[in-house]
């Protein structure tokens, strides 16, 4: 008796081969055993195709969620710091990361499978510490450099992390250099530069001394490199294998996101009293409108963190990094609609360049994923034919 289709679809696991010699074999076998094996391969092919479709649809959904939540987080964070005067950069970064631990509670009832309890704890802990450290340092450089350099330099340099994500993907993920991907990343970087410097006629940006601006640019450059490294390290160390179903990828990504939040809660609170005692950032409990908007910002960051990690898991750090650049254009449009800020020609041209780069990179990534799926299907066919012989 064959199992229901939902059971077959949901039980694909990273630790279990897609086709096992003993798994799912029917009790009815003919004299040579050939017809049964070939029929089972054909019955699995539609499931594989459906899993790929689910993967693409889920990736598209995560893209929309990550872009929308990032825009919401950016707008609320800017309003809190600029208009309400609650300028507590490190504290805001800390509280924004903590709610990720709620993902672990939400996934607890779905993690009762015995294999989920067999994950190597200390390996996961080391990987979480490494990835979270890279992310925290990268984020901290942005908050420090914001007062040292110009907004244009800050935007342009930090968002070059897409280039570094691709550079790190080659040695760490063994990704082959491809002309279409390189061109896509370069177009995206050019788009960011156009947005940052295209209409840079504000002389107030030249107030800082040259040495201070250079130091800020070098600092944010380090942050850009580390953020690209963070995305690639997450893909290498904390993502399930490509054969894992999209549902299990979501659960695992949410668990990792929760672990990052737990690490932030347990370890990264230590600088808060030090910053308070030194007077660099006096701790104040937010109240009134500030507390309400901060709650919205925290919720938006939790949605962004979870959806962005899932997007990396389902696609690649390069595609996810370039996709994140779309928020530059979306934030500019939102500022124009909500606050009446001018939507400059540079923002429009740069945004269109980023959109074009994302479209080209999406096509290249989809083509690569399709070729890998076809190659896996061919390998499975060869293995079955060899076994039959």
UniProtKB/TrEMBL annotation:
Annotated signal peptide: none
Region feature (Disordered): 1-44
Record keywords, A-Z: Membrane, Transmembrane, Transmembrane helix
Pfam family, one: EamA
Keyword Transmembrane among UniProt keywords: yes
SUPFAM superfamilies assigned: Multidrug resistance efflux transporter EmrE
Keyword Transmembrane among record annotations: yes
Xref: InterPro entries: EamA_dom, EmrE-like, Solute_c_fam_35_mem_F3/F4
Domain EamA, residue spans: 122-196
GO CC terms, sorted: membrane
Name of the protein described by the UniProt record: EamA domain-containing protein
Annotated organism of origin: Orbilia oligospora (Nematode-trapping fungus)
